[in-house]
Write a structure and sequence with these properties.
- This protein has 282 residues and is mostly helical.
- The chain has one domain (2-277).
- Helix content is 78%, strand content 0%.
- Helix 1 crosses helix 10 (241-253) and helix 5 packs antiparallel against helix 11 (260-277).
- It is globular and about 50 Å long.
- The protein starts with a helix and ends in a 5-residue tail after the last helix.
Length: 282
């Protein structure tokens, strides 16, 4: 049991770090207009599929993309496309609140529909963690562009659905490979649209490739592994760490200042998530 818990913590931590890296790469590339959102999404998905194919060959002496499903592939794209487009007109703080608020509602709502009501400590932990997140991003909160807000909300719901569908997966790498392969077949026509309608610098393309191969492809396979040890409620709540990790990454890699607000909010978010993870068994 201890080994299982330790493994879940390890894979969850690795996945959350990948998610945060994805946010940093996306914001850097789109915020500096190094690439348009359509090209970024296409390159991200295709790069993820190629990376997963290579990993599958290295681990299994071959690849089998029959795992996964078209439904999960569509959920993956329904997250990735509006995520990129929405960040053109949303601040990082506002976007984070909309995205992860939508994820919480989707994953906790899924548990409740199936009769798995969150423990009272999980409700308290969720409220504490959300208050820490709100405090972290409060200076950047503005009245959001309504279309962008709707797009980011759709991205959050879709990511919640993608995560829920991954809970019963027995072979995370194979399932993720299959999902990305299917998503590539769907998204490939977008390449021809984005090639004429958008622009992409070599630096922007490189950021999209890293986002797809490492932060998305490998990261999502790791997340599917972590989900085997998490309830939908806990899986939703622990993702509140992502904006915090992304903010810390901004300090380390983008030269953003480390403020007392970041330290205080980090403590509050960590405490809230700890309540949900360490609650006593029923």
């Amino acid at each position: 049991m201890l080994r299982s818990s330790t493994s879940t913590i390890f894979w969850t931590s690795a996945a959350l770090a990948a998610f945060a890296s994805n946010s940093i790469l996306c914001r850097f590339a789109l915020g500096r207009e190094l690439i348009d959102p359509w090209s970024f999404t296409v390159i991200r998905i295709v790069s993820g599929a190629v990376a997963l194919w290579l990993i599958s060959i290295a681990r299994h002496n071959g690849s089998d993309f029959r795992s996964g499903s078209w439904q999960s592939a569509i959920a993956l794209l329904a997250y990735a496309v509006p995520f990129s487009v929405a960040y053109l007109h949303l601040t990082a703080g506002t976007g984070a609140l909309i995205l992860f608020g939508s994820v919480q509602l989707t994953m906790i709502g899924s548990d409740m529909v199936r009769g798995k009501h969150p423990h009272w400590m999980e409700w308290i932990g969720l409220l504490v963690a959300l208050s820490g997140l709100a405090y972290l991003v409060a200076p950047g909160i503005t009245s959001p562009d309504p279309i962008s807000a709707v797009l980011m909300g759709c991205a959050g719901i879709s990511w919640g659905i993608y995560s829920i569908r991954g809970k019963g997966v027995a072979a995370p790498l194979a399932a993720t490979s299959g999902n990305f392969a299917r998503a590539t077949l769907i998204v490939a026509p977008m390449f021809f649209v984005s090639a004429g309608a958008g622009s992409a610098s070599s630096e922007g393309i490189l950021l999209a490739v890293i986002s797809g191969a490492a932060a998305s492809g490998a990261g999502y396979a790791v997340w599917y592994t972590a989900l085997r040890g998490l309830t939908s409620t806990r899986a939703g709540i622990v993702q509140l760490f992502v904006p915090l990790i992304a903010a810390a990454g901004g300090v380390a890699f983008l030269g953003e200042p480390a403020t007392p607000r970041l330290l205080i909010s980090g403590t509050v978010i960590s405490g809230g998530v700890a309540l949900t993870i360490l609650r006593p068994k029923d």
